[in-house]
Specification:
Radius of gyration: 17 Å
CATH topology of the largest domain: DNA Polymerase III, Chain A, domain 2
CATH class of the largest domain: Alpha Beta
Order of helices and strands: EHEEHEEHHEEHEEE
Helix content: 25-40%
Largest sheet: 6 strands, antiparallel
Strand content: 25-35%
Number of domains: 2
CATH architecture of the largest domain: Roll
Number of helices: 5
Distance between the termini: 50 Å
Strand order of the largest sheet: 2-3-10-9-8-5
C-alpha cells in the first residue's frame, strides 16, 4: 500500500504545486524528498547538487515544511513529475498519495544539522536576487555554443560554487535556489544561520541549506 499524506487544507496542495513546479523547471528530472515524523512534513528538493563526477561542486537544498492533519512516518524520495500529477486530486480530497520510491539522487544522502543553528545576520531580498541574476548571467556567458553535458556541468559547478559573500563564504548556488524556488519576499530580509560549516537562508516562504564555499573567488 502506498503511503498517503493527510493535508490540513487545500492551500497546502496549491503551495506544494507551486513549489514543486518551480523545482522541476530548475531540474526537469528532479526528485523530491518527503520526511515526516509526527504531524510535521519536510519537503526537500535540490535545484543544484553535486554528482559523483563533480564531487567538489555546490549543493543547495531547498526545503518547505507544513503541518499534516494526521501524524505520519515517512521518508521517501520520488520523482517531482509524479507528485505533480497527483496534486490536483489532493487539492480536492486532502489526501496526497506518495508514488513508489525513486532511485535517490546523491543529495538525498546529505544530512544537514538538525540543531545548533545560530543566527548570524540578515541579507536583503534585493541582494540575494542580484547575486542570483549575476550567476545566471555568468553561466550563460561562460557556456560555449556547443558543449557536452559533462563540460557544461563542470562550468556551472565552478560558477555556482563561487562565494557571493566572502565574510560568509556563501556559494552563489544558495542565492540561485532562494530566487528560483520562490523563497524571496519583497521587502522581507533573508535570515542567515550557521551550524558548523553549514549555512541556512530562511524566509517566511522556505529555507535553503548549503555548505560554506571552499573557493576563494
Amino acid at each position: 500500500m502506498k503511503p498517503t499524506l493527510s493535508l490540513s487544507a487545500p492551500q497546502q496542495a496549491t503551495d506544494l504545486t507551486n513549489f514543486l513546479s518551480r523545482a522541476k523547471k530548475m531540474d526537469d528530472d528532479g526528485v523530491v524528498r518527503f520526511r515526516a515524523f509526527g504531524d510535521v512534513l519536510a519537503v526537500s528538493v535540490a535545484p543544484i547538487f553535486t554528482s559523483n563526477l563533480f564531487a567538489d561542486g555546490p549543493t543547495a537544498i531547498g526545503m518547505r515544511t507544513l503541518k499534516l492533519a494526521e501524524p505520519t512516518e515517512i521518508d521517501s524520495v520520488v520523482l517531482i513529475s509524479e507528485v505533480l500529477q497527483r496534486l490536483p486530486q489532493a487539492e480536492q480530497s486532502l489526501h496526497l498519495e506518495i508514488p513508489l520510491d525513486h532511485k535517490p539522487a546523491s543529495w538525498t544522502g546529505i544530512s544537514a544539522p538538525r540543531n545548533g543553528w545560530k543566527s548570524i545576520q540578515q541579507i536583503s531580498e534585493d541582494q540575494i536576487s542580484e547575486w542570483a541574476k549575476k550567476g545566471i548571467k555568468d553561466v550563460a556567458e561562460s557556456l560555449p555554443d556547443q558543449v557536452g553535458g559533462p563540460v557544461a556541468a563542470r562550468i556551472r559547478a565552478q560558477i555556482w560554487s563561487r562565494p557571493v559573500d566572502l565574510s560568509l563564504m556563501l556559494p552563489g548556488a544558495a542565492a540561485f535556489a532562494m530566487a528560483g524556488l520562490g523563497f524571496l519576499v519583497k521587502g522581507e530580509g533573508v535570515n542567515v544561520y550557521k551550524a558548523n560549516n553549514w549555512l541556512r537562508l530562511s524566509s517566511s516562504f522556505g529555507h535553503v541549506l548549503t555548505k560554506e564555499s571552499s573557493r576563494i573567488s
